Amino acid sequence: MGEKVTNGDFATGTMAGWTGTSSCGEDSYFLEANIVDGKTCCSCQSWLDHCTTYFSQSVDLTNVDHLTFLAQWFLAYWSEDPPYGLGQVLIDGNVVFSASGDIETWTAYDIDVSSYSGSCVIRFEVISEEYGVGCEITDVSAIDVPPAPVAEFSGTPLAIQAPGYVQFTDESTNIPTSWLWDFGDNSTQSVQQSPMHRYVQVGTFTVTLTATNAYGSDSETKINYVTTTLLPPGGAPVAEFSGTPLLGNAPLSVTFTDASTGAPTSWIWDFGDGMTATSQNPTHIYTIGGTFDVALQAINAFGSSTRTKVGYVIVGTCTGCPVANFTGTPLSGIVPLTVTFIDSSTATPTSWLWNFGDTETSTSQNPVHEYHYTGYYTVKLTATNANGSGFKQRTNYVWVKPIAPIPVDPPVPPIGKQSNPADGAISFQLNSLTSSESIGSQYDHLMALREITNYDLRTRP
């Protein structure tokens, strides 16, 4: 993923990358990079009636679904009566968002721009209907979306005697995070990445895989992909099996699954390290390092067969390797969501590799990561020291929720003027004038308020 907005957080302290102007001339507005409440932002303000002030930038919106930004709006301060000022976001001249009234806290906005593509002009503007209006904008972001998966898979063997097993292997691209398999035999669907499926019926079966990530999904269907025939009565079994995991450091626990056909009634396993088992689906712990051949002999009343897989399990020895572990907080929230990850690995790792599940990575020990799109994310940490590496993966660890809709027309606060005897600060809500107050006096009070609250409004020329 890549950010497509130049200087979207105005961190340069300038308006670099943006152009701005006003329909009423230079003396009627100001537009500049500024610091408000500790945030670098663009302050955009109009002082005259029926005046539009804006700043804009051409952005490539190819593969972009969302435009996000933070904003404060000051659209009713100087208006005696409605209509008040208006704040808008436009793309190629089309209004995609509007606000009115005063929203005096930093508020996150998320706009769907998936219908736009190519170079487009993004424009933020304020329109004064009577007296002055303004806004403060920062963290403008348009991030290109990684593509959805392209589903693909293979299976072996594709011609079997029933009941029998087929091993399916996911070969999808673009990093899917979830899978759904339909084996075509009305059996329970699987959500494993590369499942082994047992066919008990005789026939020809169509198989479908749907691969999904945070950016979409895709399905691949192979028609009449698996063919099963009836196992002749009285036949000896045909041994077959699988195991997982097949690679790791000692002690390594491997679960073996019998996939033999021909209705075996007993099994003899040889794990290659001098140990054996006679259960159908054993779990074996390798306590020493090495590369091990694994053999299964499947037996019934009519005979037996043996399946041997050479170099099937690889076990490393790593004295003093890290045992990776971590925590994150918060683990859920609205988009964009910033999560702080804390390494809690043992054995003093000296380097770290984080995979946040959204194609982004980090080599910091305790990274802070921002998720820009909704969905569930699996996080993996690999911790390394001079002795070797260990990893920890937490599936669907982070949940990024969609942002709640924000009303276009928030209610206008009550009319009035208040003073705070505790600190002497003056606060105003200027919706009407009393007979004893002038526009100029209320304007002066408002300037004092803006200085107290660090809004940095300039005086009228």
What does the secondary structure layout of this molecule look like, with pairings?
Blueprint: E1 19-22, E2 29-36, E3 39-46, E4 51-60, E5 64-74, E6 86-91, E7 94-100, E8 102-112, E9 119-128, E10 133-144, E11 153-156, E12 159-162, E13 164-170, E14 178-182, E15 196-199, E16 203-213, E17 216-230, E18 241-244, E19 247-249, E20 252-258, E21 266-270, E22 276-277, E23 283-286, E24 290-300, E25 303-316, E26 326-329, E27 332-334, E28 337-343, E29 351-355, E30 361-362, E31 368-371, E32 375-385, E33 388-401, E34 416-419, E35 426-429, H1 439-452
Parallel strand pairs: 12-17, 19-25, 27-33
Antiparallel strand pairs: 1-4, 2-3, 3-10, 4-9, 5-8, 5-10, 6-7, 6-9, 11-13, 13-15, 14-16, 16-17, 18-20, 20-23, 21-22, 21-24, 24-25, 26-28, 28-31, 29-30, 29-32, 32-33, 34-35
Describe the structure.
The protein is built from 1 helix and 35 strands. The protein is mainly beta and 461 residues long. It has 4 domains: 19-145, Jelly Rolls; 153-230, Immunoglobulin-like (Sandwich), CATH 2.60.40.10; 241-316, Immunoglobulin-like (Sandwich); 326-401, Immunoglobulins (Immunoglobulin-like). The longest helix is centred in the C-terminal third of the chain and has 14 residues, at 439-452. The model is unreliable at 410-461 (pLDDT under 50).
